[in-house]
From TrEMBL:
Residues 88-202 form the Phosphatidic acid phosphatase type 2/haloperoxidase domain. Keywords: Membrane, Transmembrane, Transmembrane helix. InterPro entries: PAP2/HPO (IPR000326), PAP2/HPO_sf (IPR036938). CDD domains: PAP2_like. This is PAP2 superfamily protein. The chain crosses the membrane at residues 12-31, 65-83, 90-113, 133-151, 158-178, 184-205, 217-240, 260-285. Residues 292-311 are annotated as: Disordered. It holds the Pfam family PAP2.
Length: 311
């Protein structure tokens, strides 16, 4: 790629990485450090009991897939695909994205973040924290890494399927009562940040043989994911706003309809976040992992010098 185009891409990915960090900080502050945020999380979590028996089998099967063994196997496969394409640096970065995202989640959840007891009904004791979601991080990091290492022809399909799998796993943790909505959103933001940061490193390390082409950009898949993400996040915010019971509400006194609206809105917001994270990843992957072409670039046409005879 021309150095100017590479510089623009690197600047965008660096800015995007910072944006993910800021968004993660906002989610932590609102839903962990404020009473209103804790209340909204608890109301949405309480709404998972509505219709829970109908989705219990599906939720169990989805969550059972996520394990240390499955994460290790997926990571090995991701590295193998990149190495099979003769992309050693890509294999290292894609593996680092998976490992880094999951390590970040575990450190934040068990070491860094503490959840204060702000008197919200149904909250656990102070110091017990569940943000971010480990299961969501595993699913989303693996999905993003596959988009990075797969051949260009498969990236669009992999991105759509990966976003769906990440969203399904994240909502399953909410439906099972394992995690609050903010836990899943925080996990998705962590994965997005690591994907953008990994892409930034790949762009900086690109060789002079890298050739990015818009034919590998998958604009339809990016548009589909982006539009779905915006609509779902907007609908989720609206639903949660409608279901907001007020700062000092008694969760036990809320109607099942209000609880379900809060739960459904949170689920929509989670799915929308998964779509947006994947859309942002797919939108730049053709520049982050361009094809390699060792043929020399065609020479530039000589510029015509202005002479007095041409005047």
């Amino acid at each position: 790629m021309p150095s100017r185009s590479r510089g623009v891409t690197a600047s965008w990915l660096f800015t995007l990485t910072l944006a993910y960090v800021v968004a993660l900080g906002a989610v932590w502050w609102i839903f962990v450090r404020t009473r209103h945020g804790q209340l909204l999380d608890s109301v949405a979590l309480a709404g998972n009991v509505v219709g829970q028996t109908h989705v219990h089998t599906l939720v169990t099967r989805v969550l059972d897939v996520v394990s240390v063994a499955s994460l290790a196997a997926a990571t090995l496969l991701i590295g193998f695909i990149a190495l099979a394409r003769r992309r050693l640096l890509l294999a290292l970065v894609a593996t680092l994205v998976v490992a880094g995202a999951n390590l970040t989640t575990q450190v934040l959840k068990h070491v860094v973040i503490q959840r204060p007891d702000l008197g919200v009904q149904g909250e656990t004791a102070a110091g017990l924290n569940s943000l971010p979601s480990g299961h969501t991080t595993v699913a989303a990091s693996v999905a993003v890494a596959f988009v990075l290492v797969l051949p260009p022809a498969l990236r669009g399909t992999a991105a759509v399927l990966g976003a769906g799998y990440s969203a399904l796993t994240a909502v399953a943790t909410l439906s099972a009562g394992w995690h609050r909505p903010s836990d899943a959103v925080a996990a998705l933001l962590i994965v997005g940040g690591w994907a953008a940061g990994g892409g930034f490193c790949l762009v900086l390390a690109q060789s002079r043989f890298a050739r990015a082409t818009t034919r590998e950009a998958h604009p339809y898949a990016v548009s589909l994911l982006a539009v779905a993400g915006v609509v779902l996040v907007a609908g989720g915010v609206l639903a949660v706003t409608v279901a907001d019971p007020g700062l000092y509400a008694n969760i036990d006194g809320l109607t099942r309809r209000r609880l379900f609206v809060a739960y459904a809105g949170s689920a929509a917001g989670i799915c929308g976040t998964a779509c947006l994270v994947m859309a942002l990843t797919l939108a730049t992957v053709h520049r982050v992992v361009p094809r390699m072409d060792r043929r020399p670039l065609p020479p530039r046409p000589p510029s015509r010098a202005w002479t007095s005879t041409e005047a």
